[in-house]
Fold this sequence. Notes:
Blueprint lengths: L9 E4 L8 H11 L3 E6 L7 H17 L3 E6 L5 H15 L4 E4 L15 H22 L9 E5 L12 H21 L5 E7 L5 H13 L4 H10 L9 H12 L9 E4 L10
Parallel strand pairs: 1-2, 1-4, 2-3, 4-5, 5-6, 6-7
Helix pairs in contact: 1-2, 1-8, 3-4, 4-5, 6-7
The structure holds 1,4-dihydronicotinamide adenine dinucleotide.
The site of 1,4-dihydronicotinamide adenine dinucleotide has 28 residues, from α1 and α6.
Keywords: Oxidoreductase
Pfam family, one: adh_short_C2
Organism: [Mycobacterium] manitobense
Amino acid sequence: MSPTSNAPRTALVTGAGQARGIGAATAVHLGRSGVCVAVTDLVPPGDRAGKVLDGLEDTARRVRDAGGQAVVVPLDVTDLAQIEAAIDTTVSTFGGLDVLVNNAGTGLGVSPFAELSDELWQLSWSVNVMGAVRLSRAALPHLRAGRGAIVNVASTAGLGAEAGYGAYTVTKHAVVGLTRLLAAELGPQGIRVNAVAPGMIYTDLGAAELELMAARNEMSLEEATTAMVGGIPVGRMGTADEVAEAICWLAGPATYVSGAVVPVHGAASSGLTT
Ligand code: NAI
């Protein structure tokens, strides 16, 4: 199938195998707009592989139910060979690649600075930054003027700094920098590059953050949730669907938006900013 301007749009979403994650919600929202989606995630070796593959198949089924097409592709964003294979599979299955959503991320680098090991710095950098760098580079030859769009999933931790967020803060700042650099460089080629900066979103990662906050402050989970929600002006955590809405808008209808970092945080503070 050779790509034409009338062909359905195609997308690759990283980190899309968790049922309540932002990646899965984004894939389903794209499917609702008729987009063909490569649904990808890290498939670890060993016992957990089957569970992750089931999660990916479940996301793919939800994309199809929503009206889109889907293909499941295992993809560890720290593995260059897997990145190239995933892009090839997307292009050969759907005839092109229009939208790249760099959603995969790790929160393992959330820790006070003095306690962070080199290993956690390196893991955070490899997943959160180099994953998006390498995927964007591999996608570039396929992205077409007027249709091509990259959306990076940063964080409010990429807009400001709060004590205790460690390598997560630093790498999400880098994702914001990457977004602006690529927007400046790829604009003349008709490719838009934007990011979302989610605040507290109720996903597996968001739940883990709440547990960490509870443990650090010797609170119950309920007390930690109440304290955290108390700092959000809209008075609640966000949902993966609400972030997916913003991602899909940036990926499609927002035709004159590039280089933007859209906060999806219910007006919560981003911490220390310049
Ligand atoms: P999640 O844990 O459901 O999603 C993270 C995904 O990244 C998972 O599917 C995981 O398997 C994948 N991943 C991790 N390492 C990977 C690797 N090496 N290769 C490929 N995939 C890998 O959590 P959530 O919340 O949906 O996170 C999605 C994105 O949103 C992440 O980038 C996260 O940093 C960001 N975010 C989340 C917030 C929240 O409150 N939940 C707030 C701000 C940003």
